[in-house]
Every structure is written in C-alpha cells, then in structure tokens.
Amino acid sequence: MAAAALALSAAPALAQDMDHSAHGEHSQSKQMDHSAQGMNQADHMAAMNDDVAGAEAALTAYRNALTARDAEAMTALFAEESFVYENGKDEGSFTNYMAHHLGPELDAITSFTFGEPTVAVTRMGHMAYGRETYTYRIELADGRVIDREGVATSVLTHDANGWKIVQYHSSSRPPRNQ
Question: Rounded to two decimals, what is the model's pTM?
C-alpha cells in the first residue's frame, strides 16, 4: 500500500516535469523562478526526511491514549480514511474499530499498561512506516488479567496538520514461558 501511494505521488511530479519540457521555450525569469522553487522544495524534502520525531510522537501518543483509555485522543491520531487490522481481522476504519471493537472494551478495562515498548520509524517524503514491539497487561473489571507480547506496524501520512495514522496492524500472543 505504501509503495503504491509513493508511486502515485511521484506521477504528478513526473507529469509536471514533462509538462515543462513540452513547452520548449521558457523565459530566463521563469527558469530562475522554477530553480528557486525547486531549491525550496528540495530543502523542504530534506528537512522532512531527516525528521521522524513527529511520526514517532504520533505512535507514542496512540499508545498513551490507549493506556489512558482516551477515545477522543486516539481518534484524533487517525486519518478519516484509515484501516485497522488486529490479530488477523480487518476492523475497517479506526472510527469503525472504535465503535464496534475497542470502544466497548474500554469500559471493561480497569488498568492498561505497556512494558518494554520500542518504536522505529522510517520516513519517505510525506509518508512514514513504523514498527513497534511491546508487552502489555490489561486488568478487567471482572478480575481477569491479560498479559501479552505484541507487535504493530503502521503507515502514517503527513500534511499541514501533522502526522496521521492511515493504517495500523497489530497482533499479540501470550508471553513465552522462559
């Protein structure tokens, strides 16, 4: 999915380059304006590629909102058109996941803690992908305790409003006996 999005995002730039070369003649001032614009875009892209902190912060904020059981904060971190997959199930958009799966579970949770979280993000222009590992413990109102080891991968997109998660895939299993 990320590769397809990157391929699609490259098409307008290629079309723009082709469009400029198809005009044949450009005035000197238009060429200088285009060069200055290109340098600004190149500087902007270099700065974006060097900074993954915002994407990491979005993933950390999701984990923090989950432990706080803050549905509003979680929802704000996801793009309107998002996809959530959990333990082999397509949950639909985050809005659907919250309404039909996670939301009802939040009411039954008395404590949710993460242990040993790791997050690594790779940025690719206006997109990034994240890889996470963690353990977690959930204590339920009925007294049950759930201890798990988990992993997650995510795809994020960046726009003027910051980072949003567009795809999130998590899975977990009982801890291995050591």
Answer: 0.71
